[in-house]
């Protein structure tokens, strides 16, 4: 019997050379083949993906996938590099992490604090994010409610939101709360419709400031973050700023989720009224449930994830491999 292949389903521009191969995929391909394994790189075709998988007995890793099958793991950046989802359900808001139980007692406090300091040094102090941020500093209102919008045309947002951006912002403006409201549109949303909408809101309500400022500067001045399920929710935790989510997220465990606009007021009070275990949670999320693309044991880490699906990893025929213990 021929060894099982690992099949990487990647965007067509990557395979044509128009876009670079992501570091994770390059390291996985090179490490896998160095140990005698077979790797195929194929276009990610959402329409024909499942029929293709049903025709073979190989294992498939799908870039930005959300398909559940015993021989599929879905992968994509888990908000901040070098961490990636490698998940049987999907990535980010659709990942299975959202259904897991976070117990702070399961996390080593010293390791979590060290990891938290590392993440602050890597992202907060240099004011960096996965999306490019302005270098210039703006004077921003203190003790604000920070609102981070998302691009309305992103497929996953429509699938996971409990309310649209208009409902979310309208519910905020309707609250009897004197605090400033700082709204940052998504950098990928350059529509005139969004610009006109935000201009009207700012003109009608003196509490509102619309800005494209560096998100770290906004968070440094904020009391609370409100968003549907933006990655900024994770970055807000690095600033120890509480998070209110208006949609489904796989980092909801130490945030407050709002199922409808009428509950937004209570959610903000709840979020700002308690202390959240940010270091332990972020360690649990990234170190214990995501894949580190820079890991020296990347191939073995991937093998462990595959073994957890029930797939016999001995079928890959890799050298120097004992079947990893399956996760329970």
Question: How many domains?
Answer: 2
Beta-strand portion reads 15-25%
Structure annotation, total helices: 12
Q: Termini distance?
A: 29 Å
Low-confidence stretches: 322-328
Describe the strand arrangement of the main beta sheet, using strand numbers: 2-1-3-4-5-12
Helix content: 25-40%
Helix/strand structural class = alpha/beta
Q: Residue-averaged pLDDT, rounded?
A: 93
The total count of strands amounts to 12
CATH topology of the largest domain: Rossmann fold
Report the top-level CATH class of the largest domain. Alpha Beta
Shape: elongated
Question: What does it look like?
Answer:
The chain folds into two domains: 5-78 and 291-316, Rossmann fold, CATH 3.40.50; 104-283, Glycogen Phosphorylase B (Rossmann fold, 3-Layer(aba) Sandwich), CATH 3.40.50.2000. The protein has helices at 12-15, 23-34, 49-54, 109-124, 155-160, 165-173, 192-204, 215-220, 232-238, 264-272, 278-289, 298-308, and strands at 5-10, 38-43, 59-63, 72-77, 83-87, 144-148, 181-184, 208-210, 222-227, 243-245, 256-257, 291-292. Helix 4 crosses helix 11 (278-289). The protein is α/β, with parallel strands linked by helices. Strands 2-1-3-4-5-12 form a six-stranded mixed β-sheet, with helices on both faces. Strands 8-7-6-9-10-11 form a six-stranded parallel β-sheet, with helices on both faces. Helices cover 34% and strands 16% of the residues. The protein is elongated. It contains twelve helices and twelve strands.
């Amino acid at each position: 019997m021929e060894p099982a292949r690992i099949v990487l389903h990647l965007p067509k521009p990557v395979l044509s050379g128009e876009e670079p191969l992501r570091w994770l995929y390059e390291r996985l391909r090179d490490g896998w083949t160095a140990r005698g394994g077979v790797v195929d790189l194929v276009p990610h075709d959402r329409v024909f993906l499942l029929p293709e998988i049903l025709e073979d007995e190989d294992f498939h890793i799908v870039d930005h996938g959300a398909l559940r099958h015993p021989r599929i793991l879905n992968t994509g950046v888990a908000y901040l590099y070098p961490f990636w989802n490698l998940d049987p359900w999907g990535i980010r808001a659709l990942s299975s992490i959202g259904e897991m139980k976070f117990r702070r007692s399961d996390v080593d406090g010293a390791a979590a604090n060290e990891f938290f300091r590392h993440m602050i040094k890597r992202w907060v102090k240099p004011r960096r994010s996965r999306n490019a941020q302005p270098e210039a500093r703006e004077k921003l209102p203190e003790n604000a409610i920070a609102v981070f919008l998302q691009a309305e045309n992103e497929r996953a947002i429509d699938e996971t939101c409990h309310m649209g951006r208009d409902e979310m912002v309208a519910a905020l403006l309707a609250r009897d709360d004197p605090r400033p409201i700082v709204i940052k549109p998504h950098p990928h949303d350059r529509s005139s419709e969004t610009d006109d909408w935000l201009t009207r809101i700012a003109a009608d309500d003196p509490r509102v400031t619309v800005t494209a400022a560096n998100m770290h500067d906004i968070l440094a001045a904020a009391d609370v973050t409100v968003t549907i399920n933006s990655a900024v929710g994770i970055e807000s935790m690095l600033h120890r700023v509480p998070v209110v989510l208006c949609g489904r997220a796989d980092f909801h465990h130490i945030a407050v989720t709002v199922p409808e606009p009428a509950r937004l007021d209570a959610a903000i009070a709840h979020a700002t009224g308690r202390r959240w275990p940010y270091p332990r949670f972020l360690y649990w999320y990234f170190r214990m449930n995501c894949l580190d693309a820079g890991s020296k044991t990347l191939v073995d880490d991937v093998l462990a994830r595959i073994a957890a699906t029930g797939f016999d990893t001995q079928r890959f025929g890799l050298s120097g491999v004992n079947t990893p213990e399956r996760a329970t």
